[in-house]
TrEMBL record:
The keyword Isomerase applies. It comes from Candidatus Anaerostipes avistercoris. Gene3D superfamilies: Divalent-metal-dependent TIM barrel enzymes (3.20.20.150). SUPFAM superfamilies: Xylose isomerase-like. It comes from the Bacteria. GO terms for molecular function: isomerase activity. InterPro entries: IolE/XylAMocC-like (IPR050312), Xyl_isomerase-like_sf (IPR036237), Xyl_isomerase-like_TIM-brl (IPR013022). This is Sugar phosphate isomerase/epimerase. Residues 26-279 form the Xylose isomerase-like TIM barrel domain.
Length: 285
């Protein structure tokens, strides 16, 4: 089975906009089959120009987003929860227009929102209620799968492991909810890479980010990619495997993600070397 590798726009740009359209043909030129648009603000995303450039370059795409304190589905404030649903719906509109089958990322809570307590039943119910509205909208307007990304304990207290994410999808119950796994977060939270994949299975694993444990060049650190790829092959995962990292020069993201040092001369070099490494590992599976 052949894996489909992709690259995230965060490799080059912190806030993707009209000045970043060149990234689309660049990703294709570097040998990636998919580009992941990291949508920082869905209300400012240049969807029409992006669509034109995608058609011109001939590359597939997916989308991810991270919600904010003003668009937090697990907030106790009903107005903020309503704003969250509206923001996710706007991202779904973008996916529909671009032909992106996936909306991944921290789309179920504000990224970085921590109460300093374990997740509560009330928060779970808020999250399920909001996501059900968004997922139902996705079903009514197209065929986008919403994939919820398990992230580490320092970025959310809501979904850290595959088991909880699968349960969240089941509780939403719309049939178009899946799990987004990211190796960077998995190595901190999961007991086993293959175990997490099998917990999701083909039914619930919808999207994968292939990042190294330090967010450096994939294939140069502690992530057991051979084990991970073997498990993906066993469940017949056929979605994209996308490299995502951030540059320490980014004004906001580097601080939020605690990126204090360079892992390559440029983000582009990280992506090129990572793709080479991951392809080599995949060929042995």
């Amino acid at each position: 089975m052949k894996f489909k590798f992709g690259v995230d726009t965060f490799i080059w740009s912190e806030n993707y906009g009209e000045n970043d359209l060149w990234i689309i043909p660049k990703a294709k030129e570097l040998g990636f089959e998919v580009i992941d648009f990291a949508i920082s603000n869905p209300y400012k995303f240049p969807v029409k120009k992006v669509k034109e450039e995608l058609d011109r370059a001939g590359i597939d795409c997916v989308c991810t987003t991270t919600l904010t304190d003003e668009t937090n589905p697990i907030s106790p404030d009903p107005k903020i929860r309503e704003a969250a649903v509206n923001a996710v719906k706007k991202c779904i509109d973008i996916c529909n227009e671009l032909g992106a089958p996936i909306l991944g990322g921290v789309n179920y809570a504000a990224w970085g929102y921590l109460t300093k307590k374990p997740r509560t039943e009330e928060e779970w119910n808020y999250g399920v209620e909001c996501m059900r509205k968004s997922a139902q909208y996705a079903k009514e307007t197209g065929c986008v799968n919403i994939c919820v990304e398990c992230v580490n304990r320092f970025e959310t207290h809501f979904l850290n492991i595959a088991e909880d994410a699968v349960q969240f999808c089941k509780d939403v119950g719309t049939g178009n909810m899946k799990v987004h796994l990211d190796c960077f977060h998995m190595i901190r939270e999961e007991k086993s890479f293959s175990g997490a994949v099998k917990t999701c299975g083909k039914e619930y694993l919808g999207y994968v980010h292939v990042n190294e444990n330090d967010r450096g060049i994939p294939g140069t650190g502690l992530v057991p990619f051979e084990e991970f790829f073997t498990a993906l092959k066993e469940i017949e995962y056929d979605g994209p495997l996308v490299i995502e990292s951030f540059d320490p020069s980014f004004e906001e993201l580097s601080g939020n993600c605690a990126i204090w040092r360079k892992f390559a001369d440029t983000g582009e070099e990280l992506a090129i070397e990572g793709l080479k490494n991951l392809k080599a590992i995949a060929e042995t599976i």
